[in-house]
Every structure is written in structure tokens, then in C-alpha cells.
Design brief:
The complex is a heterodimer of chains A (about 210) and B (about 130). Chain A is mainly α and about 210 residues long. Chain A is built from 9 helices and 2 strands; from the N terminus they run E-H-H-H-H-H-E-H-H-H-H. In chain A, strands 1-2 form a two-stranded antiparallel sheet. Chain B has a single domain, classed as 3-Layer(aba) Sandwich (Rossmann fold). Classes of the chains: A mainly alpha (about 210), B alpha/beta (about 130).
Chain lengths: ~210, ~130
């Protein structure tokens, strides 16, 4: 499978559209345990990303992803700006000067993105954050790669793991981020960051499926 | 002289804390505010924080005071973008009281360490005695 610059652009555009579509839902999820701005912030960030994309459309994939990250960092006001921004920047750094990617390189980039989020947020799994969704998804991809599993099937299982991880945040007690100020009252709510991570993973799968067809 | 940067999700809150802290520090301590996002809505802006840090850069160092934890992420990214020029500490003190105590300490020509320690004393500040 060849993943090209066009596919990466399509993925980023798809994420922007998916976030816009779920903007109100993300706001609602953020309202009982956060500051009700996750949907608005993410939508603002990715709308600006859409404006910036044409300026880097002829560049390498690393540059495109770094530009997405820098834009998110400077336009998403909440903690998700630095977190998602770092994720895209780290993924971009892992793919410098690449105009085409192999599935293995996608896994390397996703691993770098996850490490970036963990380092920036100083968070671990089980703290009711986006890491609880992204972490299991990256695990599946690494394990599938080690077992020589075909990429499409690995991606499907990975996104299923992200979805399960997202749902696993519902009974969790938040110990990181704004929700942690609520203590016990954070239990019973799905984490908005884990939810936006799932939507991004979903678009990634759809983009890869589009290449396959 | 140590300088202070006040970072808040609200531009008005940051400006208010700066006003409040400047009153005790007089003209001697450089205090700037960096609140809100680039378009002025609630949140933090790495650009604003970075510009603020550049403006009040001091060889004696800068202490950054923040309102909530997510502001720390933005400040850390701004510091990384600036590179290692001068020492910059992020205080874990409550914003208003911390800024007040830090401004007092800094105005007495304290070091960055002393200023940071003074700000942290805000945690033990008793306002209502019962």
C-alpha cells in the first residue's frame, strides 16, 4: 500500500469535517467535566488548518503534519491545542522529507504522536484522557506489525480498540486535566478528548480504506 | 531584576492580576499579562505567551504564574520555542496570591529561586482566621 501526500491531505480535511460535524457533541461531553469548549476549540483549530493546508499541499508529509500541529498549537485555546499539536508535530518529525509512506512508517508516526502526548501531558493510561483511547489503538498496530498481520485488518482492529478505549473512560476517575478538579463527580462521563481521538482514528481508517478500494 | 508573566485563560483576569501585582511592585519589576487566545476568547495562546516572555526577558530570570493546569502546557511549549536564553520558572502557586507575593519579593531584588519560593508561600496564606 502506498500512502501519498494526497491521502494525508484528504485525512486532515476529513478530520476537520468530522470534528465540525461532532462539534456540539464534544461541547456537551465537555460540559459536565470540563469547560464546555472542546468542540469549539477543536473546530476553530481545524478550520484554521483547512486555510493553511493549500500553502503546504506540495510539500513532504512531514512538513504538512508539522504545519497542522503548529496551527493547532496556536489556535486551539484549551489543553487539546498543545496536546494534539504536539502529536501532529512529533508525527511530522518522524516523517521528514517523505512523500510516500509504507504502513510501517504510519505506525512509527502514530507511536511518536502518542509519546508526544504522554510527554506533554505527563499523563499515563487510566487517568481518563485521550491516551486511554489512542494507547490501545497504537498497541494493536504494533502487535499486528510484529505478527505480520495485513495493514487493513490491523487498522480496523486498531480503531475498534480506540473506540473501546474511549468508552473505557466513562467509569474512570479523572486525575489529569480539568476534569480532575471534579474528583469523584468525573466518574460516569466519557472523556471529550478520548472522543475526539476516536473520531480522528475513524477518519484515518476511512482514508486507508479509500486507498484500498 | 526577576520579571513576572501572568498567564490566564481570560485576558481580563490576566490583565487584572498584572494590575494588582504591579501596584505592590511599583515600576521596578517588569510584569506582563498574556491571557486568552489570539482572538481574545477564553483559553491560552502560545503566541501571546511567547511574545510576553520575549518582552520581559531578563538575565535574572522570569517567573510565570498560571491559573489552571492546561495553561502550563502552553507555557512549556512557548519556552521550548524560545530555546534556552534566560531561566524561566513556572510557578505552581495560586495565581492572584502567588503573583502578589512574587511581585513583592522580586521588587526587593530577590533571585528567581527566592521569588519562586515566595510565590509558593501563597498556598499557606491564611485570609480568614476563625
Amino acid at each position: 500500500m502506498r500512502i501519498t501526500v494526497e491521502h494525508v491531505i484528504k485525512f486532515v480535511e476529513g478530520v476537520a469535517a468530522r470534528i465540525k460535524e461532532h462539534r456540539d457533541e464534544l461541547v456537551q461531553l465537555d460540559s459536565p467535566i470540563g469547560d464546555s469548549d472542546h468542540g469549539v476549540n477543536m473546530d476553530r483549530g481545524f478550520t484554521t488548518v483547512l486555510d493553511k493546508l493549500p500553502t503546504v499541499a506540495d510539500k513532504d508529509i512531514g512538513t504538512i503534519l508539522k504545519t497542522v500541529g503548529m496551527t493547532l498549537v496556536s489556535t486551539v485555546g484549551g489543553a487539546s491545542g498543545p496536546l494534539y499539536g504536539t502529536a501532529f508535530i512529533r508525527a511530522g518529525m518522524a516523517l521528514t522529507d517523505r512523500y510516500e509512506l509504507t504502513p510501517a512508517e504510519v505506525v512509527v508516526a502514530l507511536e511518536a504522536a502518542l509519546e508526544g502526548i504522554q510527554a506533554r501531558g505527563k499523563a499515563q493510561r487510566g487517568e481518563k484522557t485521550m491516551i486511554d483511547a489512542i494507547g490501545p489503538g497504537v498497541d494493536v498496530l504494533k502487535e499486528a506489525q510484529a505478527n505480520g498481520e495485513e495493514f487493513m485488518s490491523a487498522m480496523r482492529r486498531s480503531v475498534a480498540a480506540v473506540e473501546e478505549g474511549m468508552k473505557s473512560t466513562i467509569p474512570m476517575l479523572a486525575t489529569k486535566g480539568r476534569a480532575s478538579y471534579l474528583g469523584q463527580r468525573s466518574i460516569g462521563h466519557q472523556d471529550p478528548g478520548a472522543t475526539s481521538s476516536f473520531y480522528i482514528a475513524q477518519v484515518m481508517l476511512e482514508t486507508v480504506e479509500g486507498i484500498h478500494e | 531584576m526577576v520579571s513576572l508573566l501572568i498567564v490566564s485563560h481570560s485576558a481580563q483576569l490576566a490583565a487584572g492580576v498584572r494590575e494588582f501585582a504591579s501596584q505592590v511592585a511599583g515600576d521596578t519589576v517588569q510584569i506582563l499579562d498574556a491571557g486568552g487566545t489570539d482572538d481574545g476568547s477564553l483559553g491560552t495562546s502560545i503566541n501571546r505567551i511567547q511574545q510576553g516572555l520575549e518582552q520581559i526577558a531578563s538575565p535574572d530570570g522570569t517567573l510565570v504564574l498560571v491559573d489552571l493546569g492546561s495553561a502550563v502546557l502552553s507555557v512549556e511549549m512557548a519556552i521550548e520555542a524560545l530555546g534556552d536564553v534566560n531561566r524561566i520558572y513556572i510557578s505552581d502557586a495560586p495565581l492572584v496570591e502567588g503573583a502578589y507575593l512574587a511581585a513583592l519579593e522580586a521588587s526587593a531584588e530577590a533571585t528567581l529561586e527566592e521569588t519562586a519560593a515566595a510565590a509558593l508561600q501563597a498556598r499557606a496564606m491564611v485570609k480568614v482566621r476563625r
